[in-house]
């Protein structure tokens, strides 16, 4: 009996000791699968972006050890923008991911592994204000496949001699899954943003105060379809000359799906600004208010391989706005419709290519 118990204990110890390496093998497979999924989604989105002509995301190396591994990947984007030599600009962004596989237990939580990814700034030609820790993505992967992701943009200060831009930082906390990144929930916190302009005739300085954004989406990675919703908290700012800006809420929602006859996303989109107020005593005698400003767009497929594109712009205005623009008429609401129907998908595809 003692031998059996001893054998069971030894097997348990061996299993516990081997688990980081075995989990490391799982994470290596997950890394390759996620790279392939990212590359597929990148390829699907290329033709819907007029500035990109090609792109890829590949894992170039994966060094696995007992409890930690390092993956090196490359994001490559070919654009239509002119480069320094007049040729189209090609962006190559190397990314290094440091992977701790365990089971992992740390301040960020418990899971199958912890992955910290950063662009490899040392081999890139970037401005001096971009540091090695400016952009960081941390993923905690659970045993069930859930992924808790934290995206961090560290504080940035940029001074070009004519003005200064300061960003206090951005943090995004997102909960999603390995098998379907298009379904997610998350929160974004944006710290102070400050700008200042020097020189004669400058507009001085402006300070946008911290604000938050909540977001969620439900989608299907296999079909690249779904819906999303974003809502901000109150947004406010002020200049050093007494002008103030306040927005009660900025919201966006929409649906998307892949078109059948063209590499383009279809769906409805809506962006709404609620209760925008500008106070600038030096320019306007009364506060300028826009209770609501809304933009709605729709792209859908028509008959015989065609597309229909519609847009609607609407706003509810205030008397103060009419006074500011010295309008002889008190306009209360404005609405503009725009549309194009039966656009041949073949012609649009040729234009995008």
TrEMBL record:
Checking InterPro entries in the record gives: DUF945
For this protein, the record's Pfam families field holds:
DUF945
Q: What is this protein called?
A: DUF945 domain-containing protein
